[in-house]
Amino acid sequence: MRRWVIRLVFLVLLLFVAACGAFWALEVFPRHGSHPPLKLAHGTLAIQHAHIYISPSEPPIEDGTILIRDGLIAAVGPQVEVPADTTILHCNHCVVTAGFWNAHVHFTEPKWNLAEWKSDDLLNAQLADMFLSHGFTTVIDTGSNPADTFAIRRRIEHVQLNGPYIYSSGPPLYPLNGIPFYIKETAPAWIQLLMPQPGTPDSARRIVRRNLASGADITKLFTGSWVQRGHVLPMPLDIAKAAVEESHLNGKLVFAHPSNLAGVRVAIDSGVDVLAHAADDTEGVDQALLSEAVRKNMAMIPTLKMFASTVTTDTHYMDPICDEVRLFHSLGGQLIFGTDVGYMTDYSTDGEFVELGRSGLEWKDVLAMLTTNPSARMGVSRAKGTVTPGKLADLTILSADPAQDLTNFARVQMVIRSGRVIWQKQ
Q1: pLDDT tens string 9-31
Q2: Euclidean distance between CA atoms 374 and 384, whole angstroms
Q3: Which of 89, 146, 261, 420 has a 20 to 30 A CA-CA distance from 16?
Q4: Residue 73's beta-bridge partner residues?
């Protein structure tokens, strides 16, 4: 009898050790992953007879040529000499801009689970559907399981997958007992156990240091969290300040999910750099508050379609949020494009462009949101954001002119990243 009990205990311990090892291999080890170095394409490409928007502020080049050599833009203009060994990308009077950014995405849908172990073909199809077919060459993951995000971006940068350049926040920081109700309703319990909820400033600093050491590029705070329908829990200011200070000491930006007046107030007072959403509860979010945010050089990612499609079908619900975006822009605030795809399972971008138009933005404003504004905010303007010789050949090719209709930003024909064609409409 005793021998049988000993064997049973040994078997249970063995299974426990095996389970811990599997968990470490699948979820702990992959949660560490800094950016691999860029691999630029080799060879020479040219896009001819294109309508080229060099930047939002410069007049377009009509019937121009872009020459790409070894992953970089070599020449742009109406008369560019094209070497004999160049591969010509047929454009048919297409519209070319710098590669688009989506500064608010997530890899939280179940289809991304255990991405380290999924096939190239499956992940390529998912990346094309979610990002490339909408023109995105760079994205910012503002909160997902790092085991999935880091695996995907590592495989992209090793040119195993076709995908955008991925920045990531790692796990966001929530107020104590402040996981949003919509996450509690959908995320597995074991995922919720991994969500940081610092109760002290020192704890917030440790979590930020751990995230950054693991490979995160930014910090994400829920300065205002919808813990219940109709109730926002703000993050204590001292905890938010500690997280921001630690991030800035390490040269990293901080994004905040604000939700309402209290959340925006914490974001402003703690020194947050980017509001990851417009505040959807706009009561008290007035000109004085937004003026203060602009004076402190805070940017905003509106994510308007997400609110319009996931919260309510009431058409009047969006009016005050669009007014908030319009006012922020009129005060000189920097707007950055982002859609919250991953949380929002409808990946199409037409609705975002429609809502931005309702907010009073013109095509030049939207092009800046997609290109120069995020490049500047992330400190990579020397490499991205404009169609300029010497910069990375990250380009989005459209079949129609967005100056005629904002939804033409969604008419993507081809995507080039680091001089490599990574998606083309069939």
Answers
A1: 555 555 554 444 444 444 454 55
A2: 9
A3: 146
A4: 68
